Structure formats: C-alpha cells, structure tokens
Amino acid sequence: MARILYFSRDYTPHDHRFLSALGQTQHQVFYLRLEKSVYPLEKRPLPSQVEIVSWAGGMKPVALHYGLKLLTSLRQVIRKVKPDLIQAGPLQSAAFLVSLAGFQPLVSVSWGYDLLQDAQRNAINKWVTHYVLRHSAVMIGDCQTIRQLGVAYGMPDNRIITFPWGVDLNHFNPPADAKKEAQKETFTLLSSRAWEEIYGVEVIAEAFVRAARKYPGLRLVMLANGSLATPLRKIFQQGGVLERVAFPGQVNQEDLPGYYKLADVYVSASHSDGTSISLLEALACGCPVILSDIPGNREWITPGVQGWLFPDGDSEALAEIILQAAMYRSRLVQMRKAARQLAEQRADWSKNFQELLRAYEIALTAPSQ
Q1: In the list 98, 161, 239, 315, which could disulfide-bond 359, CB 3.0-4.6 Å?
Q2: Residue 230: exposed, middle, or buried by beta-carbon count in 10 A (0-12, 13-18, 19+)?
Q3: In this predicted model, what pLDDT tens digit does every residue of 241-276 receive, in sequence order?
Q4: Domains along the sequence of the chain with CATH
C-alpha cells in the first residue's frame, strides 16, 4: 500500500473517474485541488475513501501572482501527508508546482490540451513543459498523439504509459431495442461538447443549417453551454432552423446515456483532441459518429465502419456527410454494432485503469531523477 497524493487543476468528471477507481484500491489516497471554476464541472461528491487536503489553493480560479504562496503551501502539504507518490496534471500547472517543490516520484498527467495547445503557446510554456517532464518519473496520456508530443518535449518513450481514460461500459450501453430506421421521420444529431471555439461548435451549427434546408426531418440536440451561446443561436436563427434545435443544457452523468441512445449520430467538430471521452461515451452507447479529421480522432475511427471523418473546420463537408447519414440510414445498423464493439475492445475503464497502477509501480521503483 502506498500513500498517493492526487493533485489536479479542478474537480472534473475525469477526476471523479480516477479518484473513484483509486478509492477501490489498497492505496491511501489524498486529493489536492488547485483551483475552483466559476461553474461546477462535476457535481458528484468525492468518493468517501479519498481524503481532501486543505491548503492555500482550491477555492477560486488561480492567478499567476498566487504562485509563491501556493508553492509554499504545497511544500507544507507534502511534509504533512508524506506521500510515496504524487500524481499531478496538467503539466504547466499542478505538475509544474510539484516539480518546483522538488518532490519525487512524480507521475505527471497530460490532460491533452496541455501538450496539444498550452505547451505551444509561447517560449515560457515550452520551457515549463520540458522542465516538468525532466522531473517526472512517468508521464501518462490518453493517446499516441500525446505520447509523441511527450517524447518531443523530452520524456523518454519507455517512461510514458498510454491508455484511454475509458468509460463505464455498464452505464454507457446501447439501447435495449434496435431502432427501426425505415419508420423514423426524424434524424437526430447530438453534440455534447462545450460551446467554446476549440470544439468547433460553430462549424456544427453552420453545417446543420445547410443540411436542414435539404432534409426536413433533421434535428439537432446541443448539450452543454459556453461562451459561444449568443453566436450559436444567431446562426440557427438566421438560418431559420432554431425551432429544430434543442438545448437541454448541462446534463448530469446519470442522464447522459439516454441522449446518446436517442441520437442517430453523434457529431464533434473539435479542432484539437486527444482521446475524447464524449467520443468513447457515444461509441459505448452504439451511436455512430461524425468527427473532425484530426490525429486524436483518427486513432479511433475507421471511416465507413464506426462513422465518418470530415476535414477539420469544413462545415460544407460536414453537411454533406450528415445528409449521407440521414438519407442512407440503413448502414447505421452495422455501424452501431461496430461502435459498441470498439468500445468494448479499447474503452473499458475497468480494464484501462490497470495501466495507471502499472505507472505507479514504475514510478515507485524508478531511480531518483
């Protein structure tokens, strides 16, 4: 049994997934939160087996000038908790603080965006990323694209553990009854990503307007919310399709599978992604997908098997694929089976979680940096 300090930027569904699984192990788990977002990202309580650590952070969004105070407080936490290992991410925030504190062994966690976007923003972020990985015993990431970037920033390939975070295949599962395609008058698209520029939601909106003009039965369900709410509604309003779009808002984990099961196709136009959990949820529910053709998505989808890929940012191409899916919906039956099969093969969190424990073993037995 080891004492594990789990240090993350906020409290998200991903953190809940990790902490719930860790709480079922023999390890003693402590949770440290760097900041608290204005809008809650995860409403489910922490597992009872996890002990929350009080410190100078975790109560509000973090600003740069808090750095020295947080570093001092983190060192106090380390002296008090006496962890055998710290798991920390993202790289440029939580993991960087642990590196500055001089603690080892560190299992650094790439959350995807920290290597895909943040590391490349400026020279300082590049230096920070190199620094963190030089001081990490192990790095974990969710796809080969992240692994390659980790190596590019100085992490030895043999100390990178790659596995999809995965989903609960019992919670996210296909509908009990197969849909009768020929009898349906409507064709429903589902988008579940946040309404932010990085996720390409405006591309989806523009594509839907194009496709809806040609297919009267087309419907769109847009979960979540975000800063692009006003321009999105404007696109739908000006396109004359606002009444054909549903906005359920932020849906809790308990109700989320129902939306995937009711959808004919899941759509994501994200401009940058590692392994998207939303994608894995859709696959697990047997929902065919239409995705932007970016490296993270190409690691999962074979066009024509589980769904389709379209050129990133191309709303016209997306509209054409939506129309193909709606007009030739008989092909979706086999795609549903293939989607679920892929999830069972590669996205089972109960199996993939064992890779995190393997990362711990490597870190705990690795020589000091």
Answers
A1: 161
A2: exposed
A3: 999 999 999 898 899 999 999 999 999 999 999 999
A4: 3-166+348-365 (3.40.50.2000), 181-346 (3.40.50.2000)
